[in-house]
């Protein structure tokens, strides 16, 4: 009965592969679960506005950087895993020399994913220097994004790595859509109007102007689902926590909290 024998072997191989796949997935989640009984202790068991409030208290305990100190911090948080002399540019996705930081064409500069005009917080120590939403980006691409809200659609951004834009919105390349969503939602929880800066909140608009809001929330939630945290995003959360601000982005550790709060 050779036919049956071969089928049995095939099934066994599939079962072995499945058995390997499950522990691997669990292992990926374990580094952040390590913080549940310590860092996130006061958020445990909470949902909705209670969870948001508990997380606000937890992540507001942080070291704050000067805007000048952000340059060197980004060289560490966004270092190219394949080349320690370079950083990875958020929207472009390309690797560029750390030493090419500046304001000229061909340089990279400090992109505020929560555009600083939305709430007018500028670059004073506070939301404008918070590493959890600051990323290296090509000077020209950064300028194309400007202070636009996030939404799907538009035409290709030159050197934007697949990012799109139209007159009132910007769509990042697929690989960082979730990163962008989780950075925006971190800002919403961290800044609640109680430390001399505006209460930052997402909404479902693309014409927010200087209001302390960023859209579109429904699109950001979708992006967070479609692009879960990867090793690069988790690593930068770790570097910010260990070395610089000593606070964490809860949505990188627990992406399911996005749906619980919003
Ligand atoms: Ca990603
Ligand atoms: Ca807020």
TrEMBL record:
The species this protein was found in: Streptomyces endophyticus
InterPro entries registered for this protein in UniProt: Endonuclease-I, His-Me_finger_sf
Signal peptide: 1-29
The name this protein goes by in its record: Endonuclease
Keywords: Endonuclease, Hydrolase, Nuclease, Signal
Molecular function (Gene Ontology), one example: endonuclease activity
Region named Disordered: 151-170
